[in-house]
Each structure stands twice: as C-alpha cells, then as structure tokens.
C-alpha cells in the first residue's frame, strides 16, 4: 500500500498539471461546435427604423444627375419647414446614380452644399450628412431635437 500512494500522487500531480491546459481546449472545442448567434444587427436595425419613424421627416428625390431639387419638391420642402418650424434639421443625402462611390459621394456633397445655400436664410441649424445606404438620388430632411448633439457650429467652436 505504501507503493500505491506515491503512484496515485504522481497521477494526481500529472492531472493537476494537465487540467489547466485541457480545460480551455475543451471549452473552445465546445464553443466551436455551436452555431454563432448574431441577433445584434436586426435589433439595431429595428431601433433605427423606430427612431426614424418617431422623428418628423420628409423624403425628396433628385432627377437623374441634377444638383438642384425640382421646383415642386423645393416648394414641398419649404412648406414642410414652414409647418414644423424646426430649430435644427439634418439634411441627409443618399448616393447619386454613379457606380463610382467617390463620384457618388462628390455628387451628394454638391447637392448638400446647394441645399445649405438654399436654406441659409432661414434661422435653422443645418447638419449636412451623407448616407450611402439611402436609395440613389434620395434626400431625407429630418427634424432634430434641440438637445441632440451633432455637428459643431462656428458659435460652439469659439
């Protein structure tokens, strides 16, 4: 019996040394067999859609490669802003019809600059944005709450 004690102690000692190495391997093997669950993206999309539905907004369309809104859509924009009388709005431009992403972003920038000039006389804080996920030639006017942090205006920078 005296011989069994050292042998069992040697086995116990070997198991104690292997256990810290084997446990992570067993855990990783079990994790690798499970299907990854990614429910975050659908939840985020649902929250974004819900937030967009709660904020007053207007969606307009540009004609082909035009940088100015058609007259009827420009009137619609002014009527929308007149009814809502917002302090802050986001001007969100989608991509143009161009297949080149850089050219499409440039077209959106030109359109946003033209809109900023058009609405510059109003006492509204404008926040131009580019969203490549919007449909091509789409302009989204979203009224922002006064407390939402956004772009820095020259007055805030001083």
TrEMBL record:
It comes from the Bacteria. This is Lipoprotein. It comes from Aeromonas veronii.
């Amino acid at each position: 019996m005296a011989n069994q004690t050292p042998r069992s102690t040697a086995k116990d000692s070997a198991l104690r040394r292997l256990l810290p190495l084997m446990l992570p391997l067993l855990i990783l093997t079990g994790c690798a067999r499970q299907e990854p669950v990614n429910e975050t993206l659908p939840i985020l999309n649902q929250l974004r859609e819900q937030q967009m539905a709660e904020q007053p907004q207007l969606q307009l369309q540009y004609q082909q490669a035009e940088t100015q809104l058609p007259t009827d859509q420009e009137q619609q924009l002014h009527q929308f802003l007149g009814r809502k009388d917002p302090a802050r709005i986001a001007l969100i431009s989608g991509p143009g019809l161009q297949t080149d992403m850089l050219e499409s972003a440039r077209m959106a920038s030109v359109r946003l600059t033209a809109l900023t000039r058009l609405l510059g006389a109003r006492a509204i804080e404008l926040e131009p944005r580019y969203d490549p996920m919007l449909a091509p030639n789409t302009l989204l006017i979203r009224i922002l709450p006064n407390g939402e942090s956004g772009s820095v205006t020259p007055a805030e920078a001083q």
